[in-house]
UniProtKB/TrEMBL annotation:
The name this protein goes by in its record: AB hydrolase-1 domain-containing protein
SUPFAM superfamilies: alpha/beta-Hydrolases
Annotated InterPro entries: AB_hydrolase_1, AB_hydrolase_fold, Meta-cleavage_hydrolase
Limits of the AB hydrolase-1 domain: 85-322
Length: 335
Protein backbone atom coordinates (compact mmCIF):
# COMPACT_ATOMS: atom_id res chain seq x y z
CA UNK A 1 0.00 0.00 0.00
CA UNK A 2 2.84 2.35 0.84
CA UNK A 3 4.46 1.68 -2.52
CA UNK A 4 1.21 2.52 -4.30
CA UNK A 5 1.08 5.89 -2.55
CA UNK A 6 4.50 6.63 -4.02
CA UNK A 7 3.80 5.27 -7.49
CA UNK A 8 0.54 7.15 -8.15
CA UNK A 9 1.98 10.69 -7.67
CA UNK A 10 5.03 9.70 -9.68
CA UNK A 11 2.86 8.37 -12.52
CA UNK A 12 0.78 11.54 -12.52
CA UNK A 13 3.95 13.60 -12.72
CA UNK A 14 5.24 11.60 -15.72
CA UNK A 15 1.88 11.99 -17.49
CA UNK A 16 1.95 15.73 -16.83
CA UNK A 17 5.49 15.98 -18.23
CA UNK A 18 4.47 13.96 -21.31
CA UNK A 19 1.50 16.25 -21.98
CA UNK A 20 3.70 19.34 -21.60
CA UNK A 21 6.27 17.91 -24.02
CA UNK A 22 3.54 17.09 -26.53
CA UNK A 23 2.14 20.62 -26.31
CA UNK A 24 5.61 22.07 -26.80
CA UNK A 25 6.19 19.83 -29.82
CA UNK A 26 2.90 20.90 -31.41
CA UNK A 27 3.73 24.57 -30.85
CA UNK A 28 7.20 24.13 -32.32
CA UNK A 29 5.78 22.44 -35.39
CA UNK A 30 2.84 24.73 -36.08
CA UNK A 31 2.89 27.98 -34.13
CA UNK A 32 5.09 29.76 -36.65
CA UNK A 33 3.88 27.74 -39.59
CA UNK A 34 2.28 30.17 -42.03
CA UNK A 35 0.76 27.69 -44.48
CA UNK A 36 -2.67 26.60 -43.13
CA UNK A 37 -2.13 22.90 -43.79
CA UNK A 38 -4.49 21.63 -41.08
CA UNK A 39 -7.53 23.62 -42.22
CA UNK A 40 -6.83 22.91 -45.88
CA UNK A 41 -6.61 19.23 -45.03
CA UNK A 42 -9.90 19.40 -43.11
CA UNK A 43 -11.49 21.27 -46.02
CA UNK A 44 -10.35 18.53 -48.39
CA UNK A 45 -11.86 15.87 -46.13
CA UNK A 46 -15.14 17.81 -46.10
CA UNK A 47 -15.14 17.75 -49.91
CA UNK A 48 -14.54 14.01 -49.85
CA UNK A 49 -17.37 13.61 -47.34
CA UNK A 50 -19.77 15.61 -49.53
CA UNK A 51 -18.89 13.47 -52.55
CA UNK A 52 -18.79 10.04 -50.90
CA UNK A 53 -21.56 10.16 -48.33
CA UNK A 54 -23.92 12.84 -49.67
CA UNK A 55 -23.70 12.20 -53.45
CA UNK A 56 -22.81 15.85 -54.05
CA UNK A 57 -20.60 17.11 -56.86
CA UNK A 58 -18.66 20.39 -57.13
CA UNK A 59 -19.57 22.54 -60.14
CA UNK A 60 -18.19 25.95 -61.06
CA UNK A 61 -20.44 28.22 -63.12
CA UNK A 62 -19.21 31.21 -65.12
CA UNK A 63 -22.07 33.70 -65.32
CA UNK A 64 -23.09 35.62 -68.41
CA UNK A 65 -21.83 38.91 -66.96
CA UNK A 66 -18.29 37.77 -67.80
CA UNK A 67 -17.10 38.81 -64.34
CA UNK A 68 -18.57 36.37 -61.84
CA UNK A 69 -17.93 32.71 -61.03
CA UNK A 70 -20.21 30.84 -58.63
CA UNK A 71 -19.21 27.52 -57.10
CA UNK A 72 -21.98 25.03 -56.30
CA UNK A 73 -22.32 21.67 -54.63
CA UNK A 74 -25.16 19.83 -56.40
CA UNK A 75 -26.70 16.40 -56.14
CA UNK A 76 -24.88 13.97 -58.41
CA UNK A 77 -28.10 12.22 -59.37
CA UNK A 78 -31.03 14.61 -59.66
CA UNK A 79 -34.15 12.52 -59.02
CA UNK A 80 -37.43 13.72 -60.53
CA UNK A 81 -39.41 12.45 -57.51
CA UNK A 82 -37.52 14.73 -55.12
CA UNK A 83 -38.01 18.49 -54.67
CA UNK A 84 -35.12 20.84 -55.41
CA UNK A 85 -33.72 22.58 -52.32
CA UNK A 86 -31.34 25.55 -52.50
CA UNK A 87 -29.26 26.13 -49.35
CA UNK A 88 -27.87 29.63 -48.72
CA UNK A 89 -25.26 30.11 -45.98
CA UNK A 90 -24.34 33.08 -43.82
CA UNK A 91 -21.03 34.52 -42.65
CA UNK A 92 -18.64 32.16 -40.85
CA UNK A 93 -16.94 30.18 -43.62
CA UNK A 94 -17.96 28.57 -46.88
CA UNK A 95 -21.01 26.39 -47.52
CA UNK A 96 -19.21 23.14 -46.61
CA UNK A 97 -18.28 24.25 -43.11
CA UNK A 98 -21.72 25.73 -42.39
CA UNK A 99 -23.84 22.85 -43.67
CA UNK A 100 -21.68 19.87 -42.67
CA UNK A 101 -24.24 18.81 -40.01
CA UNK A 102 -27.17 18.99 -42.43
CA UNK A 103 -26.25 17.73 -45.87
CA UNK A 104 -26.31 14.01 -45.03
CA UNK A 105 -29.96 14.05 -43.93
CA UNK A 106 -31.21 16.61 -46.43
CA UNK A 107 -29.54 14.85 -49.38
CA UNK A 108 -31.82 11.85 -48.70
CA UNK A 109 -34.97 13.87 -49.35
CA UNK A 110 -33.98 16.59 -51.82
CA UNK A 111 -31.98 17.43 -54.88
CA UNK A 112 -29.54 19.89 -53.32
CA UNK A 113 -28.10 23.07 -54.82
CA UNK A 114 -25.59 24.66 -52.45
CA UNK A 115 -23.71 27.72 -53.71
CA UNK A 116 -20.83 29.53 -52.11
CA UNK A 117 -22.09 33.11 -52.09
CA UNK A 118 -19.79 35.47 -53.99
CA UNK A 119 -16.48 36.14 -52.17
CA UNK A 120 -17.08 33.12 -49.94
CA UNK A 121 -15.34 29.82 -50.67
CA UNK A 122 -14.61 29.40 -54.37
CA UNK A 123 -17.05 32.00 -55.70
CA UNK A 124 -15.56 35.30 -56.86
CA UNK A 125 -16.17 38.30 -59.10
CA UNK A 126 -14.50 41.33 -60.62
CA UNK A 127 -17.75 43.26 -60.17
CA UNK A 128 -17.45 46.07 -57.61
CA UNK A 129 -21.09 45.84 -56.48
CA UNK A 130 -21.51 44.61 -52.90
CA UNK A 131 -25.30 44.56 -52.53
CA UNK A 132 -27.64 41.75 -51.54
CA UNK A 133 -29.20 42.15 -55.00
CA UNK A 134 -25.86 41.30 -56.58
CA UNK A 135 -25.66 38.11 -54.51
CA UNK A 136 -29.24 37.26 -55.50
CA UNK A 137 -28.52 37.79 -59.23
CA UNK A 138 -25.42 35.64 -58.99
CA UNK A 139 -27.25 32.75 -57.30
CA UNK A 140 -30.15 32.94 -59.75
CA UNK A 141 -27.76 33.12 -62.71
CA UNK A 142 -26.03 29.98 -61.51
CA UNK A 143 -29.30 28.15 -60.84
CA UNK A 144 -30.58 28.93 -64.33
CA UNK A 145 -27.37 27.59 -65.85
CA UNK A 146 -27.96 24.43 -63.81
CA UNK A 147 -31.43 23.97 -65.29
CA UNK A 148 -33.52 25.46 -62.46
CA UNK A 149 -35.28 28.13 -64.49
CA UNK A 150 -38.78 26.61 -64.45
CA UNK A 151 -39.52 27.41 -60.84
CA UNK A 152 -40.86 25.26 -58.04
CA UNK A 153 -37.73 25.67 -55.92
CA UNK A 154 -37.59 25.56 -52.15
CA UNK A 155 -34.94 27.73 -50.52
CA UNK A 156 -33.49 27.26 -47.05
CA UNK A 157 -31.43 30.22 -45.87
CA UNK A 158 -29.68 31.22 -42.67
CA UNK A 159 -28.51 34.62 -41.41
CA UNK A 160 -26.88 36.57 -44.30
CA UNK A 161 -28.23 33.96 -46.70
CA UNK A 162 -31.74 34.94 -45.58
CA UNK A 163 -31.29 38.45 -46.99
CA UNK A 164 -30.25 36.90 -50.32
CA UNK A 165 -33.11 34.38 -50.35
CA UNK A 166 -35.66 37.09 -49.59
CA UNK A 167 -34.42 39.18 -52.49
CA UNK A 168 -34.66 36.19 -54.83
CA UNK A 169 -38.23 35.52 -53.67
CA UNK A 170 -39.17 39.15 -54.28
CA UNK A 171 -37.43 39.75 -57.63
CA UNK A 172 -37.97 36.27 -59.13
CA UNK A 173 -41.19 35.08 -57.45
CA UNK A 174 -41.85 32.55 -60.21
CA UNK A 175 -38.74 30.59 -59.22
CA UNK A 176 -39.46 30.14 -55.51
CA UNK A 177 -42.35 28.08 -54.17
CA UNK A 178 -41.37 27.77 -50.50
CA UNK A 179 -38.94 29.71 -48.36
CA UNK A 180 -37.26 28.85 -45.06
CA UNK A 181 -35.66 31.76 -43.20
CA UNK A 182 -33.50 30.97 -40.18
CA UNK A 183 -32.10 33.63 -37.82
CA UNK A 184 -32.02 36.38 -40.43
CA UNK A 185 -32.66 40.08 -39.87
CA UNK A 186 -34.54 40.70 -43.11
CA UNK A 187 -36.63 43.84 -42.89
CA UNK A 188 -34.37 45.51 -40.33
CA UNK A 189 -34.01 49.23 -40.60
CA UNK A 190 -30.48 50.62 -40.67
CA UNK A 191 -30.88 51.84 -37.11
CA UNK A 192 -32.06 48.43 -35.86
CA UNK A 193 -29.12 46.65 -37.50
CA UNK A 194 -26.57 49.08 -36.11
CA UNK A 195 -28.13 48.91 -32.64
CA UNK A 196 -27.84 45.13 -32.51
CA UNK A 197 -24.23 45.14 -33.71
CA UNK A 198 -23.18 47.87 -31.26
CA UNK A 199 -24.31 45.69 -28.34
CA UNK A 200 -21.27 43.49 -28.94
CA UNK A 201 -18.68 46.27 -29.35
CA UNK A 202 -16.24 46.74 -32.21
CA UNK A 203 -17.08 47.34 -35.84
CA UNK A 204 -18.51 44.91 -38.36
CA UNK A 205 -15.11 43.81 -39.66
CA UNK A 206 -14.02 42.69 -36.19
CA UNK A 207 -17.23 40.74 -35.58
CA UNK A 208 -18.15 39.16 -38.93
CA UNK A 209 -14.70 39.04 -40.52
CA UNK A 210 -12.32 38.17 -37.66
CA UNK A 211 -8.62 38.96 -37.84
CA UNK A 212 -7.37 37.12 -34.78
CA UNK A 213 -8.19 34.02 -32.71
CA UNK A 214 -9.68 36.37 -30.11
CA UNK A 215 -12.05 37.84 -32.71
CA UNK A 216 -13.06 34.37 -33.91
CA UNK A 217 -13.80 33.22 -30.36
CA UNK A 218 -15.97 36.31 -29.88
CA UNK A 219 -17.90 35.50 -33.09
CA UNK A 220 -18.55 31.94 -31.90
CA UNK A 221 -19.70 33.11 -28.46
CA UNK A 222 -22.09 35.65 -29.97
CA UNK A 223 -23.46 33.12 -32.46
CA UNK A 224 -24.07 30.17 -30.14
CA UNK A 225 -25.82 29.67 -26.81
CA UNK A 226 -24.68 26.10 -26.10
CA UNK A 227 -21.69 23.90 -26.86
CA UNK A 228 -19.23 26.80 -27.01
CA UNK A 229 -16.75 25.57 -24.40
CA UNK A 230 -14.75 23.84 -27.15
CA UNK A 231 -13.62 27.16 -28.62
CA UNK A 232 -11.47 27.88 -25.56
CA UNK A 233 -9.61 24.59 -26.05
CA UNK A 234 -8.79 25.09 -29.72
CA UNK A 235 -5.17 26.31 -30.03
CA UNK A 236 -4.61 29.77 -31.46
CA UNK A 237 -2.58 28.42 -34.39
CA UNK A 238 -5.55 26.36 -35.60
CA UNK A 239 -7.92 29.32 -35.33
CA UNK A 240 -5.38 31.46 -37.17
CA UNK A 241 -5.24 28.90 -39.97
CA UNK A 242 -9.05 28.87 -40.17
CA UNK A 243 -9.04 32.66 -40.49
CA UNK A 244 -6.36 32.49 -43.18
CA UNK A 245 -8.36 30.02 -45.28
CA UNK A 246 -11.85 31.48 -44.80
CA UNK A 247 -11.27 35.23 -44.67
CA UNK A 248 -7.88 36.51 -45.81
CA UNK A 249 -8.17 36.07 -49.59
CA UNK A 250 -11.34 38.18 -49.87
CA UNK A 251 -11.19 40.10 -46.58
CA UNK A 252 -11.75 43.50 -48.21
CA UNK A 253 -14.76 42.29 -50.19
CA UNK A 254 -16.31 40.48 -47.21
CA UNK A 255 -16.06 43.60 -45.06
CA UNK A 256 -17.62 45.67 -47.86
CA UNK A 257 -20.50 43.19 -48.19
CA UNK A 258 -21.19 43.38 -44.45
CA UNK A 259 -21.00 47.17 -44.32
CA UNK A 260 -23.35 47.49 -47.29
CA UNK A 261 -25.83 45.21 -45.53
CA UNK A 262 -25.68 47.17 -42.28
CA UNK A 263 -25.70 50.65 -43.76
CA UNK A 264 -28.50 50.29 -46.31
CA UNK A 265 -32.09 51.18 -45.47
CA UNK A 266 -34.59 48.50 -46.48
CA UNK A 267 -37.36 49.73 -48.77
CA UNK A 268 -40.95 50.07 -47.58
CA UNK A 269 -42.21 47.18 -49.75
CA UNK A 270 -39.68 44.67 -48.41
CA UNK A 271 -42.29 42.45 -46.83
CA UNK A 272 -44.40 42.02 -49.96
CA UNK A 273 -43.72 38.38 -50.87
CA UNK A 274 -46.38 35.75 -51.43
CA UNK A 275 -44.44 32.48 -51.05
CA UNK A 276 -45.29 30.15 -48.19
CA UNK A 277 -42.58 30.85 -45.62
CA UNK A 278 -41.29 29.07 -42.53
CA UNK A 279 -39.41 31.24 -40.03
CA UNK A 280 -37.14 29.44 -37.55
CA UNK A 281 -35.51 31.24 -34.65
CA UNK A 282 -33.55 30.39 -31.51
CA UNK A 283 -34.95 32.05 -28.41
CA UNK A 284 -31.40 32.88 -27.25
CA UNK A 285 -30.28 34.54 -30.49
CA UNK A 286 -27.97 37.44 -29.61
CA UNK A 287 -27.31 38.54 -33.19
CA UNK A 288 -30.94 39.02 -34.28
CA UNK A 289 -33.05 38.66 -31.11
CA UNK A 290 -36.30 36.70 -31.20
CA UNK A 291 -38.47 39.84 -31.19
CA UNK A 292 -37.31 40.47 -34.77
CA UNK A 293 -38.33 36.97 -35.83
CA UNK A 294 -41.78 37.55 -34.39
CA UNK A 295 -41.94 40.92 -36.16
CA UNK A 296 -41.08 39.31 -39.48
CA UNK A 297 -43.77 36.67 -38.88
CA UNK A 298 -46.40 39.38 -38.25
CA UNK A 299 -45.55 41.06 -41.56
CA UNK A 300 -45.76 37.86 -43.60
CA UNK A 301 -49.39 36.66 -43.77
CA UNK A 302 -48.37 33.41 -45.50
CA UNK A 303 -45.83 32.44 -42.85
CA UNK A 304 -45.45 30.26 -39.77
CA UNK A 305 -42.81 30.45 -37.06
CA UNK A 306 -40.95 27.81 -35.05
CA UNK A 307 -39.07 28.92 -31.93
CA UNK A 308 -36.28 26.68 -30.65
CA UNK A 309 -35.72 26.75 -26.91
CA UNK A 310 -32.24 27.49 -25.52
CA UNK A 311 -30.77 27.87 -29.03
CA UNK A 312 -28.74 30.84 -30.23
CA UNK A 313 -28.07 32.31 -33.67
CA UNK A 314 -26.22 29.27 -35.01
CA UNK A 315 -29.23 26.97 -35.31
CA UNK A 316 -27.47 24.91 -37.99
CA UNK A 317 -24.72 24.05 -35.50
CA UNK A 318 -26.64 23.85 -32.23
CA UNK A 319 -29.77 22.01 -33.42
CA UNK A 320 -29.13 20.55 -36.90
CA UNK A 321 -31.39 17.51 -36.48
CA UNK A 322 -34.36 19.59 -35.34
CA UNK A 323 -33.69 22.10 -38.12
CA UNK A 324 -33.48 19.34 -40.75
CA UNK A 325 -36.78 17.84 -39.57
CA UNK A 326 -38.52 21.22 -39.72
CA UNK A 327 -37.18 21.95 -43.21
CA UNK A 328 -38.13 18.51 -44.51
CA UNK A 329 -41.64 18.58 -43.06
CA UNK A 330 -42.29 22.07 -44.37
CA UNK A 331 -40.97 21.57 -47.90
CA UNK A 332 -42.57 18.13 -48.31
CA UNK A 333 -45.77 19.47 -46.70
CA UNK A 334 -45.84 16.76 -44.05
CA UNK A 335 -48.15 17.57 -41.17
Amino acid sequence: MASMKLIVPLLCRYISIAISLFQSLVLCLFDNFDYPILINLADAFLSLYFITFCDLRPITIDLNDGETTVHFWVSGHRRINRPDLVMLHGYGGNSKWQFIHQVTDLSKSFNLFIPDLVFFGKSHSRNTERTVEFQARSVVGGLKRLGCSEGGLAVYSISYGGFVAYRIAKIWPEMIERLVIVSSGVGFTQQQKMTEMKKHGGDVSEILVPRSPRDLRMLVRISMNSGIAFIDWVPDFILSQFIAVMYETNRKELVELAKNLLEREEDAEFYAISQKTLIIWGDKDEVFPLEHGRRLHRHLPNSSIEILKDIGHGVNIEAPTTLNNLITSFVLDVS
